[in-house]
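Quick log. Single chain, no ligands specified.
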Amino acid sequence: MAATTDTEHEEHTGAAASRPSAARRRPGPIAMAVSVFGELLITAGLVLGLFVAYSLWWTNVVADRAAGKQADKVRDDWAHGRGGPGALDTKNGIGFLHVPAMKNGEVLVEKGTSNKILNDGVAGYYTDPVKAVLPMSGKTGNFSLAAHRDGHGAKFHNIDKIKKGDPIVFETKDKWYVYKVYDILPETSRFNVKVLSQVPKESGRKKPGHYITLTTCTPVYTSTYRYIVWGELERVEKVNADRTPPKELRS
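-> predicted structure:
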C-alpha cells in the first residue's frame, strides 16, 4: 500500500472541512418552534415580573404620596381651626387610625370603601352594605373600616400581626378613641356582611356597644376571603394643646 503524501493528505482533509457538518445544519421546524416558544416564555416572564413590581411596589409609592398629601391637608385644617365639626366634615378625611401591631404609622381614614378611595393609600369607613357608625357621633354601633392588604399603600398588610388585647386608636381633631381588640376572624367569605353589623354577633357580642372592625383581603396577594379584627371602645381622651398621644401610642 503506497504511503499518502502530504499534498494528498491536505487535499483530503481540505475537502472534508469544506463539507458542512451536521452541527451546522439548520434546525428543523420542531426545534425552531421550541426555540420561539422558549423566547416567548422568557418575554412573558419579564412582562409578568414588571407587572408584579408595578402592583406591589410602584402602586405603594404612588398611594403613599397621595395619602401623605391628603393627610397634610387634614392636619393643616385642624391646626387652623378648620375641619369641623367631627362627623359632619368628611371631605378630606375624618381622622387617623393608629394600630401599633401593624407598624405602619398613622393611616388616614376617609369616607367610602371603593377602590377609588382605598387606592389612595387610606382606610375607608363603610357606607354600604352596612353603614358604619362614626365614633364622633356618640351613638352605639360599629365603626367598620377597610383598607388594601397589598399594593396601593397596603395599609392593612400586617393585620395578621394583631393579637387579642392589642390597642387600636382612632384620632380626630378633638379626641382620641382607644379600643381594645377582643376577637379575630382569620378567614371568612367576602360576602359575609354580618361581620359589619352594629352588634357584631359573630365576635361573641350580643349587646349594643361602641365597636370597631378592621377588614381586608386574605390570603396575602389574593382577594378570595376576608380577614376580620374586632375591637371595643375602652375610653375616650380629649386632645390637649400638644396633641400628646395616649399611652398606648407612646411605648
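The chain has one domain: 53-249.
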